[in-house]
Amino acid sequence: MSIDMAQFHTVFFEESFEGLEIMETGLLDLNQGEADVEDINTIFRAAHSIKGGSGTFGFKEIADFTHVMETLLDEMRDGQREVTQDGVNRLLESVDCLREMLTATRDGDALDTESVATVQTKLESMLAEGESSPGDKEAAVSMADSESGAQDWHIIFTPHLHMLKTGNDPVRMFRELSELGELVVNVDTSSLPDFADCDPQECFLSWELDLTGDVTREQIDEIFEWVDGDCDLEISALETIPVESAVQTEDQGVRSGVDRRSDQDRRQKDEPVAGEDRRSSADRRKGDRRSKGSGDTSIRVNISKIDALINMVGELVITQSMLSQFGEGVDLNDLEKLRNGLAQLERNTRELQENVMQIRMLPISFSFNRFPRLVHDLSNKMNKKIELKVSGEHTELDKTVMEKIGDPLVHLVRNSLDHGIEMPEQRRAAGKPETGILHLNAYHEGGNIVIDIIDDGAGLNTEKIRSKAIERGLVREDEVLSDSKIHELIFRAGFSTADQVSDVSGRGVGMDVVRRNIHDLGGVVEVESTEGVGSTFRIRLPLTLAIVDGQLVRVGTQTYIVPLISIEESLQISSSEISSIAGKMELYRLREDYIPIIRLHDVFSIEPDNRSLEDGLLVVVESEGQKAGLFVDDLLAQQQVVIKSLETNYRKVGGIAGATILGDGTVAMILDITGLLEMSLQEHSTPPTSSLFDSTASKAA
User: Fold this and answer.
1) CA 511, 512, 515 angle in degrees (round to 5)?
2) Is residue 290, in this structure, part of any structural domain at all?
3) Do 351 and 385 reside in the same domain of the chain?
4) How far, in Å, CA of 214 to CA of 229, rounded?
5) For position 97, what pLDDT does the model report?
6) Lowest mean pLDDT: which of 9-18, 148-157, 352-361?
7) What's the domain count of the chain?
8) Residue 472: inside a domain, yes or no?
9) Burial readout 342-381 (b: 16 or more C-beta within 10 A, e: otherwise)
10) How confident is the model over 198-219, as pLDDT tens digits?
11) What is the pLDDT confidence band of residue 636, given thresholds at 50, 70 and 90?
12) Edge-to-edge strands of the sheet including 558-563?
């Protein structure tokens, strides 16, 4: 019976990409000349797993490439080769190449053989450079000479019954042996049971093989290494070789067999397997090293979350059984029991919803894990010294949000590295340490997640930003802007203060994309900066895109939902605080500020209960640094609502983020606060439009 190996490909690729993340993280953690042996072992095991899986599934190019990486790592692990920055960089380049090879193989695309050959040649040249000590070189030469003399080998191969179930095929191994030299195979069928007792998935055969040719013990070990632990194997030379060489090759066979057992054998011994928790204790202290591609349609869920969900469903079944007693009518004496049952149903439904949402929650380390490599590469490229600090990496948010926040985070980090942190000599002149600090921090605040990107660099140059804005016609020369308003200008499309264009930043694209993408996620981005001290970019996002905490408001007969994240306060309108600009825009004086009033009944063309501002309520909202007051007839309840896409089911409507179905079956629109502010700005402003809200106070005065 043949096993269809294609069914295991998905798992193989998932685990291989996880292995690449482990390798990349471990390589970045290596300090020049002070390598942690356990870190190197972790990197080596990840490479070893990828090589073995590739060989099993017939991905020969990947296996051959990874073998060269593994050889280099093996020399580092055994102390034969010093861990240098150049070596780490070469291995990081190889990780990138291997990722491209795996991606192409997974997607069925052709490999970029030229690129692969270039990187592999670099690795092989490093191996040939002989960075090992002279004693190690002599030992290696001596071993190679003695092994080359042992040309004939006798192999006794006795698989364990379960070996075929691990995906290992003896025929494939024999085929590889025959490529090394002349192979004679004799099969032993003495253990074969009667036909009725024969399980086609168990191996009852054993073999004796004679291999003749210019073959080394190491070559044979590599072929059998992935059945180590799943078979009994004896390998002996048919020709006499020196005792020292025999000892060395045996040692090498033992060493190359480290941790080569099958996944099934590891599971039987309750030990980690590929794709499970393969981290060292040091890795566990550093946090979750796994990564999730943005295109993944699957998700790994902690078993405790599944258990909680199953328990909750059990509670729901009990409640349903209780309520089913009232199916044929309700006696007045049973009303209290019915109320209790309905209250319990409400609790169970709410908890079930929370548990289901938890299944989609992932630690933000899945996004943060890409940045050590990014900081490493860019700091080297820009000749800067930068240390990355990460905190709050276990903070969880929805998988969909996680996938979409990746690009904005990359833009902000690159901006801090390029524009924020200064060159070492500039930092010294400013009395700072040569090494700049970039800090990524995530935490929960209310029903949202907050991500801070903090650097101790030069901060934003407000005068330079203002000059560029005037030059581009974004603000008037006589216009007075606060520092915070000037900082907001960096999010304008095409705006850049870079003196020269580079491939890192300076083309005026990126920061406007950041704001737009974060806005599309229902979030906001803010900036705080002190010149000469540093900057903080703060992203506020909902934990999930499926549910929003909202305030229900009534305008006429219609109910709208305002996301709580956007609400500053609600108040009764005082007529003495109302002003207007040229009879167009109504303004309300809120303490020291003037904010525009947006009449929702005018925006959506509906008949309100009140047209007089004094008879209604003002809901003060804020988005992207701008405030406004929404004029409504009444405030209703606050509740969580499930978001339904209006664009998918109908069409895109300005000022509307989505829709939901309320408890009474009616449909309510969820307001897009940023969109409403933009619509109001476009309707009432005259060029230049950018500074209307900033200048309203002076005009009203």
Assistant:
1) 90
2) no
3) no
4) 27
5) 93
6) 148-157
7) 5
8) yes
9) eebbeebeebbeebeebebbbbbbbbbbbbbbebbbbbee
10) 888 889 999 999 998 888 888 8
11) very high
12) 634-642, 547-555, 558-563, 667-671, 656-661
